[in-house]
């Protein structure tokens, strides 16, 4: 039962956002939608291993969840009263058919903006969007924002209670409301993409379906708001980074770092599209954080190899990004770029200056970057210790294999 159950959960994970948004659109209740979505998963775990995965698993889950919801509403006065208070016509919603996936009226976009309502605290908005529409687990959301899982769970519960208590409508806001909610939606989309591009746990380095879903939703936003430069910037950033997806692992699934990737496997059409969007994102008013990050990604993609990359320009762009949106992670990335421009000792000094930041001290990429720079400056004992710590923090099996190999390589060089 293990493998079929895993397959069901994998399908459910990728369909979760679409399913939940459709249910909320029909029934107007987020808690009800989550409960019947979970019941649909339980039903799939029973039927699919016997009957096989349906040709349209999302439709199967939606039909099952909808029936459970209608049964619940009919027999449960609490839900019936709540839906009446929300002025929800359950029969009209039950007969509603989802629009074509390419339409701007995608239910998930509707729910994205609802979850980004100004009545919610900023952290709660992003947490709720990631959990409900991104299909991320509470632990994955917590990792994305470098906070403990119990803290993140509390944020998600608090946000759902606020939506219910304030009777926040599930709809795409009007033009006058969009600028206020857009930054939170963009932050959530980027976090979902990041989890897809660099999975926080599991057997694979990437969750490509999740990354592609973030790209798709961002394309919808871009069509909806084509003149918003930060929407262009975020879409550009995603495309320019996602273009490298096929080269990030070898045929065995092993990690391939940027300096050894086969750049002929990069998606040139995606790079061209992303580069054009960078121009739009940086034209006119002073740039925003996503536009600047996209410009950095474009410089990487334009270079024929790591050595020919314009590292001085990348450092300069990180300086701009630091002024616009300072964070320990921006400082980490800038330090790595400085190491490439000025040598490993210069980068290591900057990384050591971040060691007192609680949010980054145990952040895997920080520990890995420091281990690599320690090795490059010849401090191999400290590097080995840092690699051991990085191995403890690694979330995916490909990362662990890579770190074990790097640690073994370092041990062999110490013995010579």
In short:
By secondary structure, the protein is mainly α. The protein is 71% helix and 0% strand. Helix 20 packs antiparallel against helix 21.
- Give Rg in angstroms: 23 Å
Give the end-to-end Cα distance, rounded to a whole number of Å. Answer: 49 Å
**Low-confidence runs of at least 5 consecutive residues:** 87-105
Mean pLDDT: 85
Cα shape = globular
**Main beta-sheet annotation:** none
Number of strands: 0
How many helical elements? 21
**β content, as a range?**
under 5%
What percent of the residues sit in helical stretches (DSSP H or I)?
A: over 70%
What is the string of helix and strand elements?
A: HHHHHHHHHHHHHHHHHHHHH
Structural class: mainly alpha
GO biological process, one term: DNA-templated transcription initiation
Protein name: RNA polymerase sigma factor
Family: Belongs to the sigma-70 factor family. ECF subfamily.
GO molecular function: DNA binding; sigma factor activity
Please provide a written account of the structure.
With about 425 residues, the protein is mostly helical. Among the domains are: about 1-100; about 325-415, Serine Threonine Protein Phosphatase 5, Tetratricopeptide repeat (Alpha Horseshoe), CATH 1.25.40.10. Helices cover about 70% and strands about 0% of the residues. The protein has 21 helices and no strands. The protein has helices at about 1-25, 30-50, 55-75, 75-85, 90-95, 105-115, 120-130, 140-145, 150-165, 180-195, 210-225, 230-240, 270-280, 290-300, 310-325, 330-340, 345-350, 360, 365-375, 380-395, 395-415. Helix 10 packs parallel to helix 12 (about 230-240) and helix 11 (about 210-225) runs antiparallel to helix 12 (about 230-240). The protein is globular, with a radius of gyration of 23 Å. The N and C termini lie far apart (about 50 Å). Mean pLDDT is about 85; it is low at about 85-105. One of its GO terms (biological process) is DNA-templated transcription initiation. GO terms for molecular function: DNA binding; sigma factor activity. Pfam families: DUF6596, Sigma70_r2, Sigma70_r4_2.
């Amino acid at each position: 039962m293990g493998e079929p159950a895993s397959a069901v959960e994998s399908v459910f994970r990728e369909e979760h956002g679409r399913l939940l948004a459709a249910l909320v659109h029909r029934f107007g209740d987020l808690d009800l939608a989550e409960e019947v979505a979970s019941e649909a998963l339980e039903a799939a775990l029973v039927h699919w291993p016997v009957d096989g995965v349906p040709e349209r698993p999302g439709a199967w889950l939606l039909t099952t969840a909808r029936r459970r919801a209608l049964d619940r509403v009919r027999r449960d006065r609490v839900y019936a009263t709540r839906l009446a208070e929300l002025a929800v016509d359950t029969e009209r919603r039950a007969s509603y058919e989802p629009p074509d996936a390419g339409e701007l009226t995608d239910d998930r976009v509707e729910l994205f903006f609802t979850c980004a309502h100004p009545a919610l605290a900023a952290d709660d908005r992003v947490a709720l969007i990631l959990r409900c529409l991104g299909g991320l687990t509470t632990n994955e959301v917590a990792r994305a924002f470098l906070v403990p899982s119990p803290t993140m769970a509390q944020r998600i519960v608090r946000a759902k209670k606020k939506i219910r208590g304030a009777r926040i409508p599930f709809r795409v806001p009007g033009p006058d409301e969009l600028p206020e909610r857009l930054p939170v939606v963009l932050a959530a989309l980027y976090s979902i993409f990041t989890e897809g591009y660099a999975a926080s746990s599991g057997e694979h380095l990437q969750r490509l379906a999740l990354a592609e879903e973030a790209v798709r939703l961002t394309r919808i936003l871009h069509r909806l708001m084509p003149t918003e430069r930060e929407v262009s910037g975020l879409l550009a950033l995603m495309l320019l980074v996602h273009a490298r997806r096929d080269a990030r692992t070898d045929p065995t699934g092993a990690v391939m770092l940027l300096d050894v990737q086969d750049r002929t496997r990069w998606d040139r059409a995606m790079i061209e599209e992303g580069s054009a969007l960078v121009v739009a994102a940086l034209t006119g008013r002073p740039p925003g954080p996503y536009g600047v990050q996209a410009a950095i990604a474009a410089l990487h993609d334009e270079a024929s190899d790591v050595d020919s990359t314009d590292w001085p320009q990348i450092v300069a762009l990180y300086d701009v990004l630091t002024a616009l949106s300072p964070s320990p992670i921006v400082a980490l990335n800038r330090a790595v770029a400085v190491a490439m421009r000025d040598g490993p000792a210069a980068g290591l000094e900057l990384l050591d200056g971040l060691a007192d930041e609680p949010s980054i001290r145990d952040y895997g990429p920080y520990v890995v970057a420091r281990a690599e720079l320690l090795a490059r400056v010849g401090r191999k004992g400290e590097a080995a210790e840092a690699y051991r710590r990085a191995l403890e923090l690694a979330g995916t099996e490909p990362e662990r294999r890579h770190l074990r190999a790097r640690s073994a390589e370092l041990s062999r060089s110490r013995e010579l």
